[in-house]
């Protein structure tokens, strides 16, 4: 598997360092604050911050905030949190493209002065018509030959707020016959009479992405501007601005393939629709492929970073099997999550040869290999085991199960032997009677009749009811994005079940966001917001085995 130390961009950087084009590597991660980061962004975060780390350089965080009407401080805060949670630290202060609005404006004036930009009055529809098509050259705008003086005057008046939104735009004068549509006199500035979350009401004209990005890179001394493949066609324009403006540096753009995951949508617009239409509880709903959703689901930063290493970086967009993400998650939790006990479908077992008030604390390590400490578990006369661990009749198939006359080991505790059971009117077993085999704490019975199975259990009198939120995939279709229908049609309406389970008392006392393997049940995490000692809440992160997917 590829990893960041070997990807093609790392090779380019190594060459650039070797031949002296750059002495210090500077990358940037440039989110637009118009939504929460998703798993695709995690790939870009890991790549940009990872390259800076690998080459001893730095990585800036720059909010690409040129569309104020869709952006907000809430999104800025969430993005900062997500990057920090992933374990990365941006260099110095946070940057905003809007920090450069004055400079960008001056550069727009430079372009007008050098005859490289003009104010155009075509409506959006007309401009589209004039632009031509892939097979047909565009036509010059009737406003293309305005004089420098006229353009300077009109642009100043655009800025002063004299014209309505859409009435005029500033365009670069490049080549209406270019085979690259991005070079057919692209828009640099448009009129938007909206408040900006950083610059307030200072501006009523805003630069667009293309006019902002490369120059912002140049201002910040970015050496390698890494973006996704859909910007490949924008690179000539990126370079045109750098060649035609007195910028302080010459950054270079490199493109890599974006991450697409099956059973997942990775588009902020679609994720926003899921939130707005209340299909999920919010951007950080544990079913969301947002970083904050994954966090709440129980992903660890390490599992996300390992996943990004596993998928590697290439120059093609591919579909990644969600099983790879699940593997990275399960592998990390298997290695690192403490083990604890939770009974989801309780069946009461009464150990009749113990006194009513028997209370013995049994000590249990949280992990079989790592030193994660231990806890004391109350062992009492009445306990819960899982309904599925008891069978009314013995059979070879069920030899690890608890059946009358047979023995079972209670994990971290004693061996018990079933004597009889009771059923309700529907025929369900509702209670099992048993005897404890003396002297079996940590050792086998003296009589040599060793139990075949080990089961998890919780004290019935000291265990604590907990809310478990059992999540499944949010989409029933492998590519909800790429079908003919609306992706909303493929929402799994049954993706959350809430049940009450019994947990050992220690679990009520853990803080939020603690990962556990509930032995024989799955990986769970204490909910980031709702978990409390008097009302424990755990989210199902992922099942124990490959066939129990997200
Ligand atoms: P979306 O398409 O979801 O709206 P975006 O590309 O518009 O995403 P930005 O905030 O502009 O979102 O993205 C910040 C950075 O993250 C960009 O450099 C972008 O290329 C990268 N990025 C976004 N989506 C992915 C993805 N699926 N895989 C890899 N990188 C991505
Ligand atoms: Mg973008
Ligand atoms: Mg976008």
TrEMBL record:
Its main location: cytoplasm. GO terms for molecular function: ATP binding; glutamine-tRNA ligase activity. GO terms for biological process: glutaminyl-tRNA aminoacylation; glutamyl-tRNA aminoacylation. Its EC number is 6.1.1.18. Keywords: Aminoacyl-tRNA synthetase, ATP-binding, Cytoplasm, Ligase, Nucleotide-binding, Protein biosynthesis. It is an enzyme of class 6 (ligase). SUPFAM superfamilies: Nucleotidylyl transferase (SSF52374), Ribosomal protein L25-like (SSF50715). Residues 24-332 form the Glutamyl/glutaminyl-tRNA synthetase class Ib catalytic domain. It catalyses: tRNA(Gln) + L-glutamine + ATP = L-glutaminyl-tRNA(Gln) + AMP + diphosphate. GO terms for cellular component: cytosol. CDD domains: GlnRS_core. Monomer. Belongs to the class-I aminoacyl-tRNA synthetase family. PANTHER family: GLUTAMATE--TRNA LIGASE, GLUTAMINE-TRNA LIGASE. This is Glutamine--tRNA ligase.
